[in-house]
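Still learning folds. Look over my entry:

…
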Amino acid sequence: MEDHADGLPAPFEATGISPTDVFYCAESLLLTAWRGQGAGHAFFDRREAFGRELGRRHAAFCGVIRPDDHPLRPPEYRPLDGFWTARGYARLPKAVARFSWKDVDQAQATEKDLQFWIKNL
């Protein structure tokens, strides 16, 4: 976590969690055709195991906070909150990062809020 993008560790520090205790799972995406077949669980299993090998106490990642009616949300979209909570992750209250990027339908980059999720290893 401490070696990732500027500003990423700050939400953890504000909660009293040291970034050196956190294995940041970074961004990931599993294509729809591969979902529901165990690949997502296997991927998380390996990342969490690696975090333990490094001596980290927590695993964490963040997800973009968007409204349910966001214009870029595909009709078949299914939130991953159930998958994440089933794996033992929970939202880390008040731990939100802000990053800018350009959405495909926009001319300029805009700032987005990302909610951190965390799990004890």
About this structure: The chain has one domain: 10-120. The chain is about 20% helix and 25% strand. The chain has a mean pLDDT of 88.
